[in-house]
Amino acid sequence: MPAFKDRTRRRMSLPIGPYLNLDNRRSSTASTGSDSSYCDTSSDEEGKLPRDKHQVNSSGSSDFCVKNIKQHAFGRREIEIAEQEMPGIVALRQRADGEKPLKGAKIICCTHVNAQTAVLIETLITLGASVRWAACNIYSTQNEVASAVAEAGVPVYAWRGESEEDFWWCIDKCIHSDSWQPNMILDDGGDATHLMLKKYPAMFRGIKGIVEESVTGVHRLYQLSKAQKLTVPAMNVNDSVTKTKFDNLYSCRESILDALKRATDVMFGGKHVLVCGYGEVGKGCCSALKGMGAVVCVSEIDPICALQACMDGFRVVKVNEVVRNIDILVTATGNKNVVTREHMDKMKNGCILCNMGHSNTEIDVQSLRGLTWEKVRSQVDHIIWPDGKRIILLAEGRLANLSCSTIPSFVVSITASTQALALIELFSAPAGRYKGDVYLLPKKMDEYVASLHLPTFDAHLTEMTEDQARYMGLNRAGPFKQAYYRY
Ligand SMILES: NC(=O)c1ccc[n+]([C@@H]2O[C@H](COP(=O)([O-])OP(=O)(O)OC[C@H]3O[C@@H](n4cnc5c(N)ncnc54)[C@H](O)[C@@H]3O)[C@@H](O)[C@H]2O)c1
């Protein structure tokens, strides 16, 4: 999902920069390519930055900032296509519509601005909420989708290729509005939460709950909680089973192939691949690449995951042992500098390097800045060594699937349903049920999210008899597993 303008045009100091993890969205000045969507055509305002345009939707509202409001019809089609593959969130929308469980909720949403999340946003609105929406990532916005949502009357501040300053400006515009006081946050990465906490502490105290999706955001929430600075309850959606087991594993299993193929046209059969990290994301990548006939090795720090990799038929190696001979290297660790300049110096000509793990920390991209960068496609750079050797770097070390391909809507439906239920739970919970701490969604809700998606497959669940339930010590209606069960 790429396409961005030269972000150096809007470089200034950030409102609260040093406090926040800005590294997540810094990128090279070498990248000025554009991967406009098919409908992202020139207009009379071509060349103007979104913040410099005056745009109005057909209802007369100008409370939004998108690339081009005129593209809304294309965006609406994208949303409709996504809806067809998002049965769970659409079912939730239909089931809870009459009750309006989010009536009165005013939600700051800081997530990827794409067709799938638009389905979630519009579901929240159907359930009674009002929302203001900004992007959590400068590259992932689908401009036409942002236009469609703005046209529908949602204040959305996002476009693909925001500068760092734009990024914070958009979030700030969502948080700070004269006529609207938020009481919930839906965050992906923790930026809206932290901006509000730092810049609008009084407003933050009025928040009823935070729903956070990402590993990074959840980590930051736990840090806040440990420092006793988290005054509102937060729901850790990232560690819901219905998130990690589906988004991290199944989504990455599909999108790693899509991203690599779209970016490089590579054939996988017989290629030597190293996947760093054999957690959920790594397992998904390995399984997909192995399935395509690639010869896959794994690097791991954890003996349990390493043993799992061995049992699954992968050689476990150190990066240094194989780096000279591999054709593709994929990072999926959540860690930093897993691939260093020293490793990249040893890679052979034509090696493809990409990250599926944490933002842009896994590959030491900064260490490549002194080399020649040649943009060959949007989100695809050749890095050229003085002796002519080239490696192919995807998305400047950011998430390859989010940057170079799309992610399966069905999986997003599962995560989106979990997010919606978490918002409903925090918003409607009686006083005292949740304190200023980080919580996991009750297992029963995880099971409910899964059950919403079963009809798609005409899957028929077996019901226990009373006798069986007694024997197992379970309620016939669930939950069916203890909290510690690993799936
Ligand atoms: N691309 C996507 O769409 C997507 C989706 C979900 C999660 N993620 C991100 O992917 C990352 C991994 O997620 P996960 O669910 O697999 O986490 P995980 O914790 O299950 O797996 C990460 C694995 O990497 C290993 N590891 C850590 N440092 C390492 C190193 N230096 N060398 C080798 N192995 C190392 C860990 O032992 C662990 O087994 C996270 O940052 C997560 O946010 C990406």
TrEMBL record:
Stored InterPro entries: Adenosylhomocyst_ase-like_sf (IPR042172), Adenosylhomocysteinase-like (IPR000043), Ado_hCys_hydrolase_NAD-bd (IPR015878), NAD(P)-bd_dom_sf (IPR036291), S-Ado-L-homoCys_hydrolase_CS (IPR020082)
Skewed-composition ranges (Basic and acidic residues): 45-55
UniProtKB keywords: Hydrolase, NAD, One-carbon metabolism
Positions of the S-adenosyl-L-homocysteine hydrolase NAD binding domain: 248-407
Coiled-coil intervals: none
Gene Ontology cellular component terms for the protein in this record: cytosol
Any one GO molecular-function label of the UniProt entry: adenosylhomocysteinase activity
EC number: 3.13.2.1
Cofactor note (record): Binds 1 NAD(+) per subunit.
Cofactor requirements of the protein: NAD(+)
Region of interest (Disordered), ranges: 1-61
Enzyme class, broadest EC rank: hydrolase
Family classification: Belongs to the adenosylhomocysteinase family.
The name this protein goes by in its record: Adenosylhomocysteinase
